[in-house]
Amino acid sequence: MSVKVIKAYGVTGKWHLKSKVVPKGFSAITFGSHVYYKGENPSRRIIKHEHTHIKQYEKHGLFGFWFKYTWQWVKNGFSYKKIELEQEARNSENESSAS
Fold first, then answer.
1. Which of 5, 24, 56, 81 is most buried, judging by how many CB atoms fall within 10 Å of its CB?
2. How far is it, in rounded angstroms, from Cα 9 to Cα 48?
3. What is the pLDDT of residues 16-32, one digit of tens each?
């Protein structure tokens, strides 16, 4: 399996082309520092979004990230768009400067 290592926005991610891991309707999913994506090359927007999740994993730890993510999802009526961690990642897509 081919792995792309992408360092951007202050973190390094290991990107795996594994479309079967990515849920239907999504372009990518992150587990720790591993990002699974669909397609040939991830867009700049997706790189920013998923690298924000890598930073969140670093901040909260694996269990902490998943607890917070799941709790926010349930608390907000299973609305993906209302999860604060997702909102932060979506906001990062529009930031112009890389760290």
1. 56
2. 7
3. 888 788 888 889 999 99
Q: Which amino acid is at 69?
A: Y
Report which residue type is found at 78: F
SS (H, E, C) 23-72: CCCCCEEEECCEEEECCCCCCHHHHHHHHHHHHHHHHHHHHHHHHHHHHH
pTM to 2 decimal places: 0.85
Task: Show me where the domains of the chain are located.
Answer: 3-92
Mean pLDDT on 45-62 = 94
- φ and ψ at 98, to 5 degrees? -95, 145
Which run of H or E residues covers position 76? none
CB neighbour list of residue 59: distance below 8 Å, 6 or more residues apart: none
